[in-house]
Design goal:
Elements: H1 26-44, E1 47-61, E2 64-67, E3 72-83, E4 89-98, E5 106-111, E6 120-125, E7 130-135, H2 154-158, E8 165-175, E9 178-187, H3 189-192, E10 199-205, E11 211-217, E12 223-235, E13 238-248, E14 253-264, H4 276-279, H5 281-295
Antiparallel strand pairs: 1-2, 1-3, 1-14, 3-4, 4-5, 5-6, 6-7, 8-9, 9-10, 10-11, 11-12, 12-13, 13-14
Length: about 300
């Protein structure tokens, strides 16, 4: 596969990319999700990217969402690789480049397709020199772990497991000038014990097979988080969201993840996807230099 690059482009989170279909039946809704899941996996196969993560308090002014304080901005490098016999599991690593005070902080994630197997995440804090294993989801009452101090969390990585949810196609609408389907996903009883989301409603681009918007609700029916995507672009045969913003409606904080560069078809050494890459700076930089050279 050839290498492709784009500047800028945004991180596409597998957990919120959804597809479309016609009849509103549970069977059809599941088939929709399976097609989107396959498309999402294609985005994460042998990919190397540079991204910017911005977080701030927000308010509404003139009907528009705006930061009410100067955002905290971080620059990261990330690599992902599909694994497993079926190629449906994903391993990824992300390392902070800037600010200098946080350089070297890293996160290693193993995301499994099977609902019976919990995802695994390890966080490395360079200031402490220690690797901490994070339990992605233990109970609905536990606080999910933030990704690099942002509103993106480890719980959000969990929602790609299709067997953990039932899906219903609710409506067909026009949203942001696009024909879209509205799909509701509700956790199974087993998953409900591990998540704070009682349901998620997603607006899906009927042609491009990606999410335009998503609303997450708690058990009392309150919308607690909202996701909006933008700057959509076709790359490597699939549509990507170049910008992803997630809003915490309880704390009035938001985070935007924007991809500055992304390269597909790079040769990634599986050893990069190990805890050694978190703690061994020389080893990690040698691995990343190889990816950087391919991306030139």
């Amino acid at each position: 596969m050839s290498i492709h690059a784009v500047r800028p482009i945004t991180l596409v989170l597998a957990f919120l990319a959804f597809a479309t279909a016609a009849p509103a039946t549970a069977q059809d809704a599941r088939a929709i999700m399976e097609r989107v899941d396959a498309a999402t996996r294609a985005q994460n196969d042998s990919a190397f990217s540079v991204m910017q993560l911005s977080t701030c308090k927000f308010g509404i002014s003139g009907g528009k969402v705006k930061c009410t304080q100067r955002p905290t901005v971080k620059k990261l490098e990330s690599a992902s690789l599909n694994t497993g016999r079926s190629g449906k599991d994903t391993q990824s690593i992300a390392i902070v480049l800037e600010p200098a005070a946080e350089r070297g902080i890293g996160m290693l994630s193993y995301v499994y397709d099977s609902a019976s197997k919990d995802n695994e995440t390890w966080l490395y804090l360079s200031s402490l020199g220690k690797v901490k294993r994070i339990v992605a989801s233990s109970s609905a009452n536990s606080e999910p772990v933030s990704l690099f101090g942002s509103e993106f969390t480890t719980e959000d990585q969990e929602t790609g497991k299709l067997d953990d949810y039932t899906f219903t196609l609710l409506d067909t609408v026009t949203y942001a000038g696009r024909r879209a389907y509205v799909i509701e996903q509700v956790p199974t009883p087993a998953r409900a014990r591990k998540t704070r989301y009682a349901k998620t409603v997603v607006w899906i681009d009927a042609e491009r097979n990606l999410a335009l918007k998503a609303e997450m609700y708690d058990r009392r029916g309150n919308e607690i988080r909202r996701l909006i995507t933008g700057k959509h672009q076709r790359m490597n045969g699939v549509w990507l969201s170049r910008s992803i913003t997630i809003m915490n409606l309880v704390s009035n904080r938001l985070s935007n993840m924007a991809m500055q560069e992304i390269f597909f078809g790079v040769r990634i050494d599986p050893e990069l996807m190990t805890q050694r890459s978190l703690t061994d700076t020389v080893f990690r930089e040698a691995q990343l230099d190889t990816l950087r050279a391919q991306a030139r």
